[in-house]
Design a protein that fits this description.
Blueprint: H1 2-21, H2 27-117, H3 125-138, H4 141-151, H5 155-188
Helix pairs in contact: 1-2, 2-3, 2-5, 3-4, 4-5
């Protein structure tokens, strides 16, 4: 492009120079200059066409890139929406897991209780302390009252009544927690 400008300036300068001096240019020089100008014009047109082709190609690539970018943005938006739904589901499941973890703790309390007071079992200090720790962990006043009734029972009838209430209480709490967990999951659907 710069070569073409230089040539045009040279042609203009020659025309000005010959025009000002009043002398004429011989036909051979004029024809050579005209041929040179025609070649420069053809070269410039070819260079311009090449640049236009490159610009068109770049524009096509940009359009493809923009289209891909829009597709990726739509995909990203869909994934973000999916993540929001999964996060909501995860929160619900976390609430339900708290209930199911408590069920496991009550089942462990029942296991400890039956290990100490089940058929053919005899309580000892280690078993009693283990049950005390589990009752404290659960922090359930009803369970604590039932457990204290078993620990502090007097006589065969009193102990039999206290022991008969312990396992059903744990079973009721476990069932209640299972229903709570199911309600949490059911409410989310």
């Amino acid at each position: 492009m710069a070569g073409m400008r230089t040539m045009l300036i040279a042609i203009a300068a020659l025309a000005l120079l010959f025009g000002c001096t009043g002398s004429s240019v011989p036909q051979e020089k004029y024809d050579a200059l005209a041929a040179s100008c025609e070649k420069a014009k053809t070269d410039a047109a070819g260079a311009l066409a090449g640049e236009k082709n490159r610009a068109d190609l770049a524009e096509a690539r940009l359009a493809t890139c923009n289209s891909n970018s829009m597709s990726l943005e739509q995909l990203l938006a869909a994934k973000e929406q999916e993540n929001e739904l999964l996060s909501a589901d995860a929160a619900v499941l976390a609430k339900a897991r708290v209930k199911t973890d408590m069920i496991l703790q009550y089942e462990l309390a029942e296991e400890y209780y039956l290990d100490a007071f089940g058929p053919g079992r005899l309580p000892n200090t280690a078993k009693m302390e283990r049950m005390d720790a589990q009752v404290a962990l659960l922090d359930d006043s009803g369970l604590a009252a039932a457990w204290n009734s078993v620990k502090d029972c007097q006589g065969i009838t009193g102990c039999g009544t206290a022991k008969a209430k312990m396992a059903p209480y744990i079973g009721n709490q476990t069932q209640k927690l299972a229903l709570d967990a199911a309600a949490i999951v059911g409410a989310a659907e």
